[in-house]
Design brief:
Helix content: 25-40%
Strand order of the largest sheet: 2-1-3-4
Distance between the termini: 28 Å
Number of helices: 4
Number of strands: 4
Radius of gyration: 19 Å
Structural class: alpha+beta
Order of helices and strands: EHHHEHEE
Amino acid sequence: SREGACGTTFMFYANRTESAGRFGEALAAEGVPNGTIHSKLIPDRHIYCHWDYVMEKHTSDHTGWPWTAAHRPIEYSVDMLPRTLDIQGRCISIGLSQHWSEQDADIVAGAIGKVHDVLSAKGELGPDQVQYKGRPVKKRLETPDSSD
């Protein structure tokens, strides 16, 4: 039942930024729209380094507030939070829809499994290279009717 459903995004993580980029590209080629930090179409405003108004300290206040309130220099750089960029760089996100049928969900799950298997076979993605909730995904994702 979709009653009360509230999830809007399925997110999972590769162990390396490069793997996430390849995984995202391969998913898109399978017809599954997704996003990674590598997507160049729209800057992801969830990522601090795309917050131009903060990074460049833009303000509508004539005193420069809030940056002048610290009474010390405030400096930002696009690489100031390397751990954050590493985590965001490994994330692959897929938008969900309450209008999906079980078949739609199965198609997306099948595409994730297919991409994982293909990239693993090419040596571009080991069996423990994709994580869900911090744990490695070690086996192919199965759909209820998958037989191959």
